[in-house]
Amino acid sequence: MHFVGVDLAWGQRKPTGLAVLDDGGQLVHVSAAGTDEEIVAALAPYVEGDCLVAIDAPLIVPNATGNRPAEAELNRDFARFDAGAHPANTGKPELAGTPRGARLCSMLGLDMNPRSGRQRRAIEVYPHPATVALFELGRTLKYKNKTGRSLEALRGELLVLMGLLEGLADADPRLAVNGAWKGLVTQVEDATRKSELRVVEDQVDAVLCAYIGLFALRKPELTTTYGDFSGGYIVTPTLPAGLTPTPRERRAASAADRVREAVRDYAAQHATLREAADQAVALVQTILDDAGINYLSVTGRAKSVASFATKAARTVDGVLAFPDPLRDITDVIGVRVITYVHSDVAAVAELLRDQVVLHDDRDMGRETASQGRFGYASRHLLIGLDAVRESQPAYELLRGRSAQVQIRTVLQHAWAEFEHDIRYKGTIPDEHVPDFDRRFTLAAGLLELADREFSTIRDRLQQGMTSTPAEPEDDDPRISPRELAAFLAGQYADAGWSRTDHYAWISGLLLELGITSLEELGEALRSIDTAALNERMGYRYPPGAVRRLDDALLAAYGERYVALHGNSHREPLLRTRLHKLEGES
């Protein structure tokens, strides 16, 4: 069965929002359409079989003036929450004759009786009172464009609504959004005009309408139908007992309003936070590259406004989990480091502990293991800038901010992503949950074993990788990355592997120095006292082979090495290292 939401424009010049949920509450379609024919064409695949179409527009309007009884009844409950309904009567040109909603139902062949038990039917709904009832709001969200409301205010309110809808993933019945929804969130965050928000607003309202239809079918005892089939009706979730309006003189009095205020502030600074997240990625990547630690990827993001709103609204025993969301939610800037083997996770964590300010360190894998089970494994660090980097322009947006760094192996990452998508975004029938839990646990145990085997394989390969593999000759004068990797494995047997692209990068620096063969490289390194160099550098983390070579070349060539074109982007860093090698403080 499909649950269809239609945020119907009263005229055909404005867009109509369309959304479809499947029987499990999964969003399977969201779009905007113009004419009746376009709406019918878009919905046709979803209304051929069993369906309930929830339409935000009057369907039955017999009265020539004033309110329908349905509006009068609904207003008695919801007007004090700013969720009253506008009058619907045939005196309005757009409702004269057959209302557009009724024409659309006729074109789709839908029964409009709210008491009908037919398999293909439609109902009239109204989003504003539904949001008050579903989310227990003190007043409606002000995401509709009216005089005096700024772009940022509208954006903030719309993102609050989107965050609340995402939060229905854990509700009964559930709503599970998809990739298209994430695209709508991005459109709202990037909008520069109110008209751009309006296009998304219609589609968000359509998703809400579809959910109202799903809720009405699954929770009839919590649903109210104002009015009746003969005089017109409106279906909405029932107003919760005891819910009172937020006093206008104390707009931030309720928990819901505190969340909304925090989300507005977060939305206003989100563009800056995205730039700060880019700086956090650059910070972590620079530290890892400078240390020569091998890793698969470093990525980052600023938490979307919708995700922030969802987390900010989270409650525990009826109390906000984050009383001051802007301060208490610490992962708004997130960086993820994916390594190849488990030993590198510890190396990355220790390196960051040494290089930046560490506010918190949680080993989620160890916590899982301490409970005697297999499951989610990841190292979570909360970091801030150290005193030196606080003054550097490259990280100015990170001043006074913290970033969460998640470190995990590629296998741990695969398990976490798959489990999250299946368990929390997919649809698992209740009767199958125990079996899925067992299978996820089994998979986690197998991947932990695989992680250990990969570590063993790497260690043994590294121990035996002392000869140079033969490679076909080509016209590139540089030492090939494979030859260089084999050479360095013998030169620095106690060093870890470096990233593949780093071998190619430092081979280019060797070419700038005029070194084009391993024999020439060996001769250049012969004068280096490796033990003394290591003592001077005082490595507090396991540097990779390329970093060891980098320091050796710096010691051998000094200022000439610093001045190479390929080092122009890191000249200050190299000069600091050179002073350390020369014994300067």
TrEMBL record:
Name of this chain's protein: Bifunctional ribonuclease/(P)ppGpp synthase
A family per Pfam: DUF429
Domain RelA/SpoT, first and last residues per copy: 300-430
Species of provenance: Nocardioides koreensis
Name of the coding gene: relZ
Coiled-coil segments: none
InterPro entries: DUF429, NT_sf, RelA_SpoT
